[in-house]
Specification:
By secondary structure, the chain is an alpha+beta fold. The protein contains four helices and 15 strands.
Length: about 270
């Protein structure tokens, strides 16, 4: 499951980063990260013009920076730009987690260059992860969008769905963003009902995970089926079905909280069967 390394220290203070001569720099072109041609390691291109640079933390006693570049290509040398999702299978999970953090912070920095209240150019705060308006004082912090995930069970069966954006054959737990005024429990009941037409009960918290697509915090639960007829809405959900725990379809990659949620639930069902 995707998680920042235990020895990664988030910081905005350059003095906390120490000597930056050996810093790690992650180069992004939009949402794409520069890696070697196999996608198995972070790459450091030479001579690329950097538009923006953010100190995001310290890892293994080295400062870590996220750098935004606008170049159309890496210029050869066995390097490439690749989307983070495409790197799940080849790049180590620690690097994916740190790069995901860097990408989210670069996007926040890019989209908050002007004050949302008075349109004045904002300035980075020296002592906080924030951008402040020198005219009206408005302060913008990195955006985090909370989202629920819910795996519904009915006896030895799991309710899995295929989102319209998923590859053919892939299924996962249900998920959806919280709306203003809702608790997580409210969102679970509403989203499950809206997406597949069933009711749930007995919610149990599983875990949470930062998810940089684009800036989510996934909060995962299990729940039990309590009624209703399964009806995929056809808008977000293309297909949904009850699957016996011993005969599951193609699942999300192991780096995702959805995969961890499903596998943990299967283990618990198997243990009591």
């Amino acid at each position: 499951m995707l998680a920042s390394p235990n020895d990664f220290l988030p910081t905005v203070e350059r003095r906390a980063a120490g000597d930056t001569s050996d810093a790690i720099r992650l180069y992004f072109r939009g949402a794409d990260l520069c890696v070697n041609d196999s996608g198995a390691a972070i790459a450091t291109p030479v001579g690329l013009p950097v538009e923006r640079e953010l100190l995001i933390g310290v890892w293994r006693q080295r400062a870590v920076y996220a750098c935004a570049v606008a170049t159309p290509s890496v210029g050869g040398g066995g390097l490439q730009f690749a989307g983070l999702r495409a790197l799940f299978a080849s790049l180590p999970a620690d690097w994916i987690a740190i790069a995901g953090r860097g990408h989210q912070l670069l996007e926040w920095d890019r989209t908050h260059r002007y004050c949302g209240a008075c349109a004045t150019p904002t300035q980075r705060a020296d002592d906080d992860r924030a951008r402040r308006c020198p005219a009206c004082g408005f302060t913008a912090y990195p955006r985090i969008s909370p989202a629920m995930m819910c795996l519904v069970t009915r006896g030895e069966h799991l309710l899995l769905a295929r989102n319209v954006a998923f590859p053919s054959g892939r299924y996962s737990a249900l998920a959806g963003f919280l709306e203003v005024g809702e608790t997580i429990e409210d969102t679970i009941a509403r989203e499950v009902r809206e997406e597949v037409g069933v009711e749930v009960c007995n919610l149990k918290y599983f875990a949470s995970q930062s998810w940089p697509f684009p800036n989510s915090l996934m909060i995962a639960f299990t729940a039990k089926y309590s009624g209703g007829e399964l009806r995929p809405n056809g808008v977000e959900i293309a297909e949904a079905n009850w699957f016996h725990y011993s005969a599951l379809p193609q699942l999300p990659p192991r780096v995702s909280i959805a995969r961890a949620l499903i596998e943990d639930t299967v283990q618990r069902i198997r243990a009591r069967s």
